[in-house]
Amino acid sequence: MTLPIIAITMGDPSGIGPEIIVASYSHNTSFLNCSLLVIGNSERLKDAAKILKQNIKVNICKSTNDIVTKDKNTINCINIGTLPKNFAYGKNSIIGGEAAYQYIKTAVDLALNNKVNAICTAPISKKALHMAGYNYPGHTELLAALTSTSEVSLMLATPNLNVIHVTTHIGLIDAIDKIDPDLVFRTIERGRKILLKSLNREPRIGVCAINPHAGEEGIFGHGEEEKKINPAIEKALALKWNIKGPLAADSLFYLASRGDFDLVVAMYHDQGHAPVKVMGIKNGVNITVGLPVIRTSVDHGTAYDIAGKALADEKNIIEALKK
Fold it and tell me: Largest Cα–Cα distance in the chain?
């Protein structure tokens, strides 16, 4: 039986990506029932193994046909480009940003050509990416561009809470301006579709308001709930979807955390990210919803301050692989 292949992009080579990938191999990954293929730099992986004192070998692959499946202590790697000798950890650089971009592009090409079945991404530095000339706000927008996808949604998944975002990597004022009923509805639709597959039933969806206390009947804000959110909810209710809102975000996240909702629709980045990270960043997985390929990611950054010091925690990337 041919195992499905997950491509793991190494992320920024100056960050903790190489370490968390190598560290994940110290766990028994056979439960994943898949083959893992790192898209990155083989020498950086070897260096991470030395830092972590792990007995890990790197099998350099020219294609997916070269993957070794029987040895859990062997990392299969498609080697992309070269890095300078003694390339520094913990620093933004053009070299690091270019490398991270090429790892992602290669993984996407493999996925679009049906050579791999899914992509799992280690963290990148947005600043390094921009330094290299790729002016994307983050992974989500870059993946959308590489797959020619007009619109995607960022979803954070944890064992107890799923949150999909109407807007993500833009400022709060810009986010409120961008939100409109059609965008809210499309986001709800994408979230519902992905949960239908995993739950095999109609998901219970709660939609956040923009303003405190959902506007308190017009006391707070300028009628954003009525203008920007209510029409989307009414459209979903007409389709007989199990949906409530707009609800005050603080109350909604409490209700969702105790199990009253399967999905929370957040209006902007921090509204959705903050509760998930408070509940446990190690268990949070980033899923890009709407792409023609499956993509999950760790829910943390490059952690430059601890990169190269054997301090990174690999639990989050294991969760991302399991998803």
Answer: 64
